[in-house]
Design brief:
Blueprint lengths: L4 H6 L3 E11 L11 E3 L5 H11 L5 H9 L4 E7 L2 E9 L5 E8 L2 H17 L5 E6 L3 H9 L3 E10 L11 E3 L7
Parallel strand pairs: 5-6
Antiparallel strand pairs: 1-6, 1-7, 2-3, 3-4, 4-5, 5-8
Length: 179
């Protein structure tokens, strides 16, 4: 949270990126979303490789658990036989949480967000929340296009070197607690 960032800096933490939580009801698209499949159909190795390009650490064991946890619904986007993104939605107290939302392009991210919002509606959540990194301006644009509003800001901070990631693919972090 912004009020605590100076405390973390004094302890040796440096800001890697800022996020804003966007919340709202994603309207159902006018036409069917194409290219979405359950993430399990893509294969664990392909998802872990994609995730590794978008996250600061390799996390195949975590990813396997995250994608299959009860209540979590994971979708992948496949275009011309190639994985172009994936995302997860899960129930939460106030609204469904989307994260991660990783995609090659804004169009891939939009398709995934629309599909994940539809999944959320199936388990009774009209609204979704996505923690989007400031480092990818296309993420905030997507949120605004879907009618989501920013509610608060945070920063991801580390004490050591951080592996670079494909920031342009990160449209939503997994969770604020986990990155």
């Amino acid at each position: 949270m912004p009020a605590q960032q100076d405390n973390y800096r004094r302890s040796g933490f440096a800001t890697a990126y800022r996020t804003a939580r966007y919340v709202g009801e994603v309207p159902a698209p006018d036409r069917p979303v194409t290219g979405l499949v359950p993430a399990g159909r893509v294969g664990a190795a392909a998802l872990a490789a994609y995730d590794g390009a978008c996250h600061h650490a390799d996390r195949p064991r975590f990813l396997d658990a995250w994608l299959t946890t009860h209540g979590h619904r994971a979708l992948a986007r496949v275009v011309d036989g190639r994985l172009t993104g994936y995302g997860v939605v899960r129930p939460a107290q106030d609204e469904a949480r989307v994260g991660p939302l990783f995609a090659d392009t804004p169009a891939d991210a939009a398709a995934l967000l629309d599909g994940l919002a539809a999944e959320a509606r199936e388990f009774g959540a009209a609204r979704v929340a996505v923690d989007m990194p400031e480092a990818n301006p296309a993420a905030a644009l997507l949120a605004r296009e879907r009618g989501l509003e920013p509610t608060f800001e945070t920063a991801r901070m580390y004490t050591g070197p951080v592996r670079p990631v494909a920031r342009e693919r990160v449209f939503g972090v997994t969770t604020l607690e986990l990155g």
